[in-house]
Amino acid sequence: DVKVTQSSRYLVKRTGEKVFLECVQDMDHENMFWYRQDPGLGLRLIYFSYDVKMKEKGDIPEGYSVSREKKERFSLILESASTNQTSMYLCASSSGRSPYEQYFGPGTRLTVT
Amino acid sequence: DQQVKQNSPSLSVQEGRISILNCDYTNSMFDYFLWYKKYPAEGPTFLISISSIKDKNEDGRFTVFLNKSAKHLSLHIVPSQPGDSAVYFCAASDGNNRLAFGKGNQVVVIP
After folding, report:
1. Which residue of B has its CA nearest to A48?
2. DSSP-assigned letters across all residues of A11-38
3. Which residue in A60, A74, A77, A91 has a CA-CA distance of 20 to 30 Å to A8?
4. Residue-level pLDDT at A2
């Protein structure tokens, strides 16, 4: 059974803080993704990675960066959190053999005050 | 611009009846389509998919239909059960490993 875990379910941070969201998958998947989900907007891709140390911008990368130092771990970094980054953040992974079937973590509800 | 569109954001259906969710797309390069289901406070889970070389795929109570000429796909759930109450996302890929998601449809199955 694929398991994708995220470091926190709920997080409250102040404007201007640096925020780290961690994601770990245990299925040796090549691909990892970070999305944010907002009411009325669905899931929007922030960044993704095909392999260790590789990253690609998604549709809304502004204000975010990522890090993938190990295959199982993909981190999302908010360099200076802002209130418009209050959202649900979802991490996902997929294998190279079935790249479209993504497995999602439970999400992190981030509130920036 | 949204490449995958799900209108009618919510649907209420009686238990035992059919639920039909619709999805339209604009990118003619999309060649693989998926439906995901999401419960509150959980991540989306994969439900069913279809390749552009097919026009129908069935898995138990779930069937996805694809009409390439109309750039339209639909998900049929029959019979609907209370546990099907969730948000359903339509997604599509053009072969580059990333997915474009729709905004989601809330389904409520009334016992």
Report:
1. B98
2. EEE-TT--EEEEEEESS--SEEEEEEEE
3. A60
4. 64
Q: What is the 3-state secondary structure (H, E, C) of chain B?
A: CCCEECCCCEEEEECCCCEEEEEEECCCCCCEEEEEEECCCCCCEEEEEEECCCCEEEECCEEEEEECCCCEEEEEECCCCHHHCEEEEEEEECCCCCCEECCCEEEEEEC
Give yes or no for residue A40 having a pLDDT over 80: yes
Share of chain B above pLDDT 90, in %: 87
In chain A, the residue whose alpha carbon lies closest to the alpha carbon of B49 is A101
Determine the residue type at B92: A
Task: Assess whether pLDDT exceeds 90 at residue B45.
Answer: yes
Structure tokens at A31: 């691909």
Contact indicator for B42, A106 with CB cutoff of 8 Å: yes
Q: Provide the token pair at A47.
A: 């960044």
> Tokens for B7?
């209108």
- Chain A residue closest to B33 (CA)? A100
Number of residues in chain A: 113
Structure tokens at A82: 């802002």
The model's pLDDT over A49-80, given as tens digits with 9 standing for 90+, comes to 999 989 999 999 999 999 999 999 999 999 99
Q: What is the pLDDT of residues A8-36, one digit of tens each?
A: 999 999 999 999 999 999 999 999 999 99
Counting one residue from chain A and one from chain B, the pairs whose CB atoms sit within 8 A come to 55
CA-CA distance, A39 to B10, in Å (whole number)? 13
For all residues of chain B together, what is the average pLDDT? 94
CB-closest option in A44, A45, A104 to B43 = A104
